[in-house]
Amino acid sequence: MVRPMTASDPCFSSLRNAILSGELPPGARLPAERALAAQYAINRVSVRAALSRLATSRLVSVRQGSGYVVRDFRAVAGPELLPGLAALAESAGDVASLARDLLMVRRALARGVLQRLAESPAALPSLGSIASAVQAFAEAAQRGAPPDELAPLDLDILRALLAATGSPVLALCLNPISEALDTLPTLRGAIYVDPSSNVAGWQALLAWLAAPNPEQLEPIVQLLQARDAATIERLKHA
To answer: With contact defined as beta carbons under 8 Å apart, do 30 and 40 qualify?
Structure first.
């Protein structure tokens, strides 16, 4: 469910983007509440709400006598900021470098998921749900579904794999990565330029899951790495 817009949203988004982009560097002081209220044409209650959200995101801290001061988010914040960074990269037309890192992290997560499944094959009674998710993706690809339709179906496969591990840690790690990828329509187009290759990859994974062998894990990871590299090359020449 999409959260409804509030009066504090423009102030929060603008200041967050200024911090994430480096326009407001660590140690910088934010303008006073009165000045922010005038700048964004909102009341001071809404300004305080925006500042509170920034503090919760660990983008700013409150110092006695200094007001709100920008923090070094790279040192203290968490992956929940990834969608904001992705939105900035998309608007700046500089998706390739951020996408390379996001795909690398997703690949590392995939390795962890597959390693967990290889170590605990008893968790694979849910193989049927994974196969169903792959089938839904394959059918959409066959009828020429656009990237915006393929992306959530692809995510359904990942979620089925994560459910098979039974690990809330792995599941929680996926959420910010998926949300960030969802913020990059340019990347989605590059990932699904040839959906048949995505289908082939998932079908190969299903074959491995039927009898998971840790010694056969590396070729799968290398295949993912090659596909991600091809995606980044498409972005560079888009």
So the answer is: no
Which residues are CB-neighbours of 3 under 8 A, at least 6 positions away? none
% of residues, the chain, pLDDT over 90: 55
Q: Where are the beta strands (DSSP E) in the chain?
A: 60-63, 67-70
Question: What residue spans define the domains of the chain?
Answer: 9-77, 80-236
Single pTM value for the model? 0.82
The Cα-based distances of 106 to 11, 65, 111, 153, 215 in angstroms read 31, 43, 9, 16, 21
As assigned by CATH, the class of the 9-77 domain is: mainly alpha
Place of tokens 């794999």: 161
**Residue whose C-alpha is closest to residue 133's, from 110, 159, 109, 112:** 159
| CATH number assigned to the domain with residue range 80-236, chosen from the 4 options 1.20.1250.20, 1.20.120.530, 2.60.120.10, 1.10.10.10 | 1.20.120.530
- Tens digits of residue pLDDT in 55-66: 999 999 987 777
pLDDT band of 124, cuts 50, 70, 90: low
Residue 40: pLDDT above 60? yes
Q: Is 12 exposed, middle or buried (0-12, 13-18, 19+ CB in 10 A)?
A: buried
